[in-house]
Fold:
Amino acid sequence: MTCYQEVSCPKCNSIKITKSGTNGYGKQRYYCRNSECKTKTFMLDYSYKACVYGMTEKIVEMAINGSGIRDTARVLKINKNTVINTLKKRKVALFR
Structure:
């Protein structure tokens, strides 16, 4: 019995996907064949939750709503240094 899993790009929702090898842990990578998509390679199951698509938006949203660095890291189950670096890159004004 064969099972199929439909894979679509998390950025553009295109179904024009091909396999693109594996990462260091043996998890499958995928390549988006849509020429207008900014995200070229992605995985369905990331080992580290900070790499999941949409995590930076969650971090910024929690910071804007008044959550602290450690609180955000604890809730999202990521490292506090990742939260700090993400906020620095996005230049979110925490203290106005």
